[in-house]
Amino acid sequence: MVKKLSIKWLFVIMGILIYILPIESQAKEIFESMPVGIANQSTYDFINGEKSYSLYEVRGYQFISLETLQAMQWHIENREGMVRIMPSNGTESAKQTVVNIEPGDAYMAPNPIYCGNIRSYGLLVNDHYLIPIEVLNAVGHLKNHETTYWMEPNFQDELNLLQMNEKGITNLADHLMHVTCIHLYWNGKVYEQTKEVFLLEIQEHQDWHLAQDTKKQYITTVVEEINEWPVLEETDQFYGQQNEVIFKQYSDAIYLRQLQKVFPRCVIKAQMIYGVGDLIQKQEVEVCRSEKHYYYVVKDEKGNKYQVPYNSIRIIGEQSGATSWKVSDASIEDFATLNHIESATDYLIWVDLCRQKIYVLKKSEEKWKLEKSFVCSTGKMITPTPAGLYEVQYSIPYIGVQKGYRCKYALVFFRDYMFHSILFDKTGEYIKSGQYELGSKASHGCVRLTEKDSKWLYKHIPVKTAVWIR
User: Fold this and answer.
1) HSE-up of residue 115 (Cα within 13 Å, Cβ side)
2) How far is CA 395 from the centre of its chain?
3) Cβ neighbourhood burial of 46 (10 Å; 0-12, 13-18, 19+)
4) Furthest C-alpha separation in the chain
5) Neighbouring residues of 25: CB distance < 8 A, sequence distance ≥ 6
């Protein structure tokens, strides 16, 4: 008896878990909060009665704020855990004043917003929600002329016979409904569609059957036909949900976050031996660079930089966090491209401090393509090569002869920091040091290479080329 009861309860628990746990293979329904562009006040306006309201533009697309709709007496409610908006009955004028949203970064809102029955993505700008202006077609006829939009009511809206939400679709009509729906997905590069057909009895609900693929982002579901009569017009274009530029940026932001783990910042940590200015004793700082044993430039946790005496800090160690030593050419190219590194020439020199590698990239159709990669030696922890974005200022055939050595083929990129060969004697014939240190941090701050590799840079890289040290 005990065994049967235990098995029974085991199946009950399994049933509960199956019900409450998400299906791992199902398409993503919730968005990630990723930057997709800059929101600015648009030259387009929305007219409601006698009042005019500003729209917002993100990457060439027009958006309207929920605050604007609320001011126009739209109903905005949280139903079944999702925000749903509907126009008010009648044509009353707006009673509230809308504060214009300041320009700022636009992030994908985690939860979708329903306009009537249409699921829409939203954008967050300084805690304000924006939705694509075209989604208003879900609850009326959106009209526009030149730079003006307005709404006209839809008195025979077939979508009112249905209820659509995150779970599925419900028949609200008093008769049998034959409904054809289209599910829209974004796979990271292009949109994909699947069709689903429902035969719904009166008040019957049926769940969606979404794509079983976590690589796809579920965007929306639209009704194509009801009882074989077309509902979706070509001009609707999925109610503004096919904004390819924005979704491409969304996917790029997710990919860039992944690449940042592959190419992490290399941080040298130090502790203040005694207080200097706003820095207090034992405070941890990040070492930016040293200046010939006279002083260090350090940075606090807020990013503020300070010049401190050379003997005022104690080097603690280095934090890099590289997930793997080897990286693909495609990852190198994508990381430079997605960081939007600009150069005044067709070339870019990227110094990977974690891996002690130099990547030479060349511009090709608005993307960076890897041309060469070299092993190098950057500065030791006590004399680090300064991270940042610089450019090649000038070149010198060799340096150091007056000091008893010769470094060949120098490209200066910041103060007296430069790319150059390993150290030779002052005649330039015999290697003095550095040959077996390549691939490790060994210099006084400059970036050392083999004679062959430094010569290649010297011959091919023009002045003004961007230098990215990370």
Assistant:
1) 28
2) 37
3) buried
4) 97
5) 212, 213, 214
Distance in angstroms (rounded) separating the CA atoms of residues 299 and 312: 14
Is the domain covering 267-319 a CATH 3.10.20.30 domain?
no
Q: How many of the other CB atoms lie within 10 Å of CB of 423?
A: 18
Nearest-5° Cα angle at 144, 141 to 146: 175
Concatenate the DSSP letters of all residues of 214-278 into one string: TTSEEEEEEEEEETTEE---GGGGGGGT--HHHHHHHHHHHHHHHHHHHS---EEEEEESS-BTT
R_g over Cα of the chain: 30
pLDDT digits (tens, 9 = 90+) for 380-414: 999 999 999 999 999 999 999 888 899 999 999 99
Look over the chain and give the mean of its residue pLDDT values, rounded to a whole number: 90
Residue 240's nearest CA partner among 115, 83, 79 is 115
The three-class DSSP label of residue 291 is strand
Q: Distance between the two ends of the chain, CA-based, in angstroms? A: 67
Chain-centroid distance, C-alpha 358: 25
Walking along the chain (470 residues) 10 residues at a time, the average pLDDT comes out as 42 41 70 96 93 95 95 86 80 63 96 95 96 94 94 80 94 95 96 96 96 95 92 76 96 96 94 96 96 92 95 91 79 97 97 96 96 96 96 96 92 96 90 88 95 97 97
pTM value surpassing 0.90: no
SS3 177: strand
List where CATH 2.30.30.40 sits in the chain.
267-319
Q: Check if the beta carbon of residue 206 is closer than 8 Å to that of residue 169.
A: yes
Nearest to 160 by CA among 136, 180, 130, 140: 140
Residues 91-114 as b or e (16 or more Cβ within 10 Å = b): eeebeeebeebeeeebbbbeebbb
Q: What pLDDT, in 10s, does the model give residues 190-208? A: 999 999 999 999 999 999 9
Rounded distance between C-alpha atoms, residue 277 and residue 286, angstroms: 16
What region, left, alpha or beta, does residue 457 occupy, with left being phi > 0 and alpha being psi -120 to 50 degrees?
alpha
Which tokens hold the place of 465?
Answer: 């080329």
Q: Is there a contact between 131 and 122 (Cβ–Cβ < 8 Å)?
A: yes
Pair 446, 376: CB distance under 8 Å: no
Fold of 329-469: L,D-transpeptidase catalytic domain-like (2.40.440)
Give exposure, 138-172, as e/b (b: 16+ Cβ within 10 Å): bbbebeeeeeebbbeebeeebbebbebbbebbbbe
The ranges of the chain annotated as CATH 2.40.440.10 are 329-469
Q: Which helix (H) or strand (E) holds 318?
A: strand 313-319
